[in-house]
Amino acid sequence: MKKLELKFTNQDGKTVNYSIDKPVEPVDTATVNAAMDEILQQNAFTSSGGDLVAKKSARIVERIVEEVEMQ
After folding, report:
1. Inter-residue contact 20 to 32 (CB < 8 Å)
2. Helix (H/G/I), strand (E/B), else coil: 40
3. Which of 4, 5, 12, 56 has the maximum number of C-beta atoms within 10 A of its C-beta?
4. Tell me: the pLDDT tens digits for 43-66?
5. Alpha-carbon distance 16 to 55, whole Å?
6. Which residues, in sequence order, are bridge partners of residue 54?
7. pTM score of the predicted model
8. DSSP type of residue 69
């Protein structure tokens, strides 16, 4: 399953991650940047280390699970 992971910096200088399941692909960089800017402007989320103060990064993360046969 793929996720879009948004990373922000909070007031304490720590990284805060938010994940969105099943992102639209291909990912539109401008749209992701605009959404992250809007999250910051609206002060939409907070963290244990205070408000979010800056964008850090965004990435697509894919997790592949392969079962191992047990004998």
Report:
1. no
2. helix
3. 4
4. 999 899 999 999 999 999 999 989
5. 10
6. 9
7. 0.85
8. -
3-23 pLDDT tens trace: 999 999 999 999 999 999 999
The domain ranges of the chain are: 2-62
DSSP string, 12-36: TS-EEEEEEES--SS--HHHHHHHH
For 63, half-sphere exposure in the C-beta direction (CA atoms, 13 angstrom radius) is: 9
Bond into 23 cis (ω within 30):
no
Position 27, amino acid: V
Identify the residue whose tokens are 């990064």.
57
Rounded CA-CA distance 25/68 in Å is 30
Closest to 13 in 3D by CA, of 58, 57, 52: 52
